[in-house]
Each structure stands twice: as C-alpha cells, then as structure tokens.
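Example 3.2
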Amino acid sequence: MARTLILLAISALILQPTSALPKFASRTGASCQSCHVNPAGKGMRNEFGRMYGMDDIALPIWKDGSDLDEFSVALSPNIDIGMDVRALLFYDQRTRSSSALMMQGDLYLDLRLNKKVRFYLDKGLYNGFEAFALARVLPSDGYVKVGKFTPAYGTRTDDHNAFIRGGPFGGGAFIGPYASLSSTGYASGLLFGERSEDTGLELGVAPAGFTLTAGVFNGAPGPGLNGVTGTRQKAIALRGDARFKLSTANVMVGGSIYRGPVGGSTHLYRGVFGAVTVADRYTWNTEVDHVLIEHPGTDRAGLIFWNELNILLTPGIDMKLGYEFYDPDTDLKNGGFSRAVVGAELFLLSGVELRPLYRINLEDPTELQNNEFQVMIHLYL
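Structure, written as tokens:
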C-alpha cells in the first residue's frame, strides 16, 4: 500500500501545471476521436487524422517530392479504406539471435450508412478483428457502439509489449501471438494486448474538454468467434478524461476502471493516467494501475507504473525515452519487473515511420540478460 501511494503521488506531481499515438493527442490538445474513426482511439484515421499525418508529422525535406498530388482513401462516396502494417527486426540478448516478424497487418473499412450510423471493420493479419456499428445519436457529440472491439481503458499506446497493454510479446491474460518468444513464467500485462477484442456495448459522450465512456462486455475477449459466453458475470469498463490548456502547456488527466472474469478468477483494474505537452515539443505520458486478481479464497494485488517521454527534435524526428515497472504481487518482497527504453521515431515520408529502440529488461531477483534491440517499420494509410 505504501508503494502504491508513493507511485500515485509521483504520477500526480508529474501532472501538475508546474511541471499514441497518445503524444499526438497531447500535442494538439485533441481527443482520440478527433483523429480516429473509433471514438476510443486506435485503428483507422478519419479525414482530420489523415491530413495531420500527411501535413504535420513527416520530414518536410522530402515532403514535396514524395506526396501524392491527389490523395484519397475513398472507394465510393460513403466507403473509405485504411491500413496499418508493422514489421519488426530485432535482436534478443538472451538467445543471441536476430529475427524478423510481421507484428501487424490490418486493413480497415469505414462504411457510412447515413449521416448518423456507420459500420467499421478492422481485420488483422492473423485471426483477430474488430467489427462494430457506431451511431452518433447521443448529445454532446455522443455515440452508441455495439459489436466486437477492445474496451476503452487508460492510455491507448500502440506498443502492445507495454504492461498497460498485453505485456511482453502481447501476452496479457491470454496466450499472445508471440508468447513462445518469451521466457517461461514471464509477467504478462493487462487484458488489452493483441487479440483482446470483446463483444459488447459502449456509450460515450464528449462535452467540451471531457471524454466519458462506459461499456459492458461478455467478458470473453479473444480472437475469432469465441466471444460467446453463457455466464452471468459480465465485464465492465469505465473511462474518463479531461483536457485543458495552461499557458504553454496542454494537460490531460483521466481515470479508468475495468472488472471482468478470466477463467475462474476476476480481474479488477483501477488506474489514473495523463499527459503533459510543454512548448509543443516535450510530451510526457504516464499511467499507474492497481491490479487485483480475485481468486476463490485468495486475492493477489499488483501495481503497474508506465511512463513515456517524447521530445520533438525537428519536424519528423522524435526522441523517445520510456520506463515502466510491474510488481505482479505487492505482498512479496521481490518479483518485480522494470523496463527502460531509449530510441527514436522517424516519420520519413507521409505514411512511413521508422522506429529504432533499445529496450533494457530488468527482473528481480533473477536478471535474465534479455535486453532487446528493435527496428520497427510502420506503413499507414
């Protein structure tokens, strides 16, 4: 409990006025739905998001010679397409080996049935997918969403290795797509990694400066058609954030709650998160989550602390520093996992990103000597 309070206090201090991709939302002071078709963020970009990606984040030196004169993602007046492709080249210190893999290959379809209702499909390279109907029929730019999708919780970082998502290799509470690459018994993250879509209903509103969402789900996340459940216990997800500007800083603070069944246990997550951008150049994202896994007759509490600092060196080039900590059982004196990362994000051309990273993994009490060097190539539309 003392450690929990200390880390919560540190996070709160970070968010004081004195002091993704989520970093883009913080830099612009906008909400996730300002750039994405999915109001909760992630996936296909809307027109504003596409134009921001083309005009504002790519290296200016090559922009004029590489951009298309006429750019359109429209298949018809009411149907748009999009994509995200990520390939990873990596070296693993533990095995002293290098390899390459396709992390992501998603195709998006946005079909607008009328001015209020649309159908959205995100089909992945493997067997995961999101498919939902979205009706913007609530006040305050609100919506109703029904289908199969990832619940809205915390920071929607694109790094599925982060403990606030699935953890290393997208493990989560399930068997992630690259789980065989991880050491046996290595800590997994929350339920929001790869292949974590769940079937349910979500409501959201966005009054000026705020975003509030509430969802109820089957509590059977996973790929394909396995989202059907006959149990009475469902999963719930609540998320809210507030955005405001202070002098030269954009500030966002928020909180989340998730509770759902996993096998014979129940997972309860309670977290706070936020972001600060100063002088349009320095962006800090942070999140603290208390994890409670309720087993019959016994409970286990854990704590996650995630941070990421992005520094805009010049348009198109960001320096990235990160640190995260996960203690799966706060009753034990050891067993924690710390990870630090240093690297860069280079938006070379419109729709092309290169991200070299060096990740330092530290385990307590046994150090596995499993640092990683990664180079991710990201193509997006």
